[in-house]
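Researcher: Here's a chain I'd like modeled. Treat it as a single chain, no partners, no ligands.
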Amino acid sequence: MSERKGFKKDDNGVLWISNYVANAKLRIHYKVKDLLDYKKSEFQQISIVDTAGFGRMLVLDGTPQISTADGFIYNEMISHVPIVTHPNPKRVAMIGGGDCGNARETMKYKDIEKIDVVEIDKHVIELCQKWLTPTTAYENDPRLHMIFDDGYEWIQKQDGAYDVLLIDRPDPVGPGKKLFSSDFYKFVYNALSEDGVVGFQSGSPFYNQSTLKRTVNSLRELFPVVRTYIMTIPLFPCGLWSFTIASKKHDPITADLSKLQDMDTKYISKEIFLASFVLPRYIQDLLGE
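Model: Modeled as a single isolated chain. Structure tokens:
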């Protein structure tokens, strides 16, 4: 147990995930009921745990990533908004998202012909298939393809290949830093079709303000349409989170919301779609809007 990052027992022998967030100057503890699975891959430590407050949870290098209690929020918001913004998407790819929750949401759009999931660590998908998103959720959909590759290297070979890209990137530390580089944004732009749309995980607008601002400014140098939208994700520190959408032609504010496949969603609706783009003044000021 001592080798597992982020896991600690208290004086009563109760196991906790202890997550220190340097930018916010806070530490959050998640009570663990059971350790379900563990794998140390060549890239990271992967844990699947059953927690008291959030159900089953994917933990990478000691940092909680997604849970069965509230994971639908993240997966619905990173998927549906970019897909609906594009008027007729046929080819969709996602970098990251190894729990395959965003792939499951993407499959709700029957006119999409190709869905590629690019994940650097095959063990993340293996454990998530076992404990979080069972293969029965997508194994019979021939449109879905798993690609085990470094997203930074993979995207450089995808010239104009996709209508929609979903960039489910980690925090800008370690190997994940290159997914926040100016070169990566250019690779993303080139990988999109002439009217392509991309959605980025862009961090907390409260304690990751520099990350969000750099993301928006970098995208504005390339795309004519750049908009940040926000949601509340209870699992994440401080709760408030952001995604940023960039498009070569289409504005999400004028999207045809009749296409939104929200019959069985738990968070997104037509009202939430539009409301998520209404930013508090401090975020507007941060982004120069």
